[in-house]
Write a structure and sequence with these properties.
- By secondary structure, the chain is mostly helical.
- The protein has one domain.
- It is 50% helix and 10% strand.
- It contains 8 helices and 7 strands, in the order H-H-E-E-H-H-H-H-H-H-E-E-E-E-E.
- The strands form 3 sheets. Strands 2-1-3 form a 3-stranded antiparallel beta sheet. Strands 4-5 form a two-stranded antiparallel ribbon. It has a two-stranded antiparallel sheet with strand order 6-7.
- Strand 1 and strand 2 form a beta hairpin.
- Helix 3 packs across helix 4, helix 4 crosses helix 8 and helix 5 packs across helix 7.
- The longest helix has 22 residues.
- The radius of gyration is 18 Å and the shape is globular.
- The chain starts with 17 loop residues before the first helix and ends in an 8-residue tail after the last strand.
Length: 233
């Protein structure tokens, strides 16, 4: 049984409109590229231009599949979704380096093939699943590496034996999350405030809280935990 941290959805039908698409592109437009960097980590830099290019790739795929898939994130949040994936991949690579994990092209391709078969069972293609999850389809090869790193790490932690109890699975998930936190912390991730803040609780870029309260409202008006901007590891 394969275990990966990503969750691929399979809901369908049209979603956001043209106005929202234009707003998303504006976020990564000319004004933002002048800021230079969308995020910094370790000695690496994700430029605003690179982020804009990947957002455009995601948006183009969304335009292609919008009558077939229903995304659960607002189109205006595409830059955060894409930047989150770019930082997830960087964190996974750091984790692999810290634990001596090496992924060959064949292993990465194998994981992509398995994932394509998984989403096909739900009636989707892998590019459609990528759009549903805010991942530009041109970054799917990196997804294969990301999955392989997680699979190899979990196999080390559980000695190749899948936990048979919820408690065992929860313990394994906690171990992996801790190692991800250590890796992310070592990268000294800094996100341009224009795109949001880095949340160590979700290992993702989230909207900057509008208040200093311990919770922040969601789109539906309910309260959600405030971003964990300091690593707890």
């Amino acid at each position: 049984m394969r275990r990966i941290a990503s969750k691929w959805t399979a809901s369908r039908c049209a979603a956001a409109g043209v106005a929202a698409l234009a707003a998303a592109l504006a976020v990564t437009g000319c004004a933002q590229t002048q800021l230079g960097a969308a995020a910094l980590y370790s000695n690496q830099r994700i430029s605003s231009a690179k982020l804009a290019s990947e957002v455009a790739n995601l948006n183009a795929a969304y335009q292609t599949y919008r009558h077939k898939v229903q995304i659960t994130y607002p189109v205006s949040a595409m830059p955060r979704e894409v930047l989150s994936w770019m930082l997830r991949f960087a964190t996974a690579n750091q984790m692999a380096a810290q634990h001596g994990i090496v992924v060959t092209p064949a292993q990465a391709q194998h994981e992509i093939a398995l994932e394509a078969a998984n989403v096909k069972q739900g009636g989707d293609t892998l590019p459609e699943a990528a759009v549903l999850n805010g991942l530009p389809p041109d970054l799917l090869p990196e997804l294969g590496t990301w999955i392989s790193i997680q699979v190899q790490l979990e196999n080390r932690l559980d000695h190749g034996v899948v936990p048979k109890t919820q408690a065992g699975q929860s313990a394994l998930t906690a171990q992996v999350s801790h190692l991800q936190c250590v890796a992310a912390k070592s990268l000294n991730i800094m996100v341009n405030p224009q795109y949001g803040v880095y949340d160590f609780g979700q290992f993702a870029v989230v909207a900057t809280p509008s208040t200093l309260s311990t919770t922040s409202p969601t789109a539906g008006g309910s309260q959600s935990p405030a971003p964990q901007t300091t690593p707890k590891c």
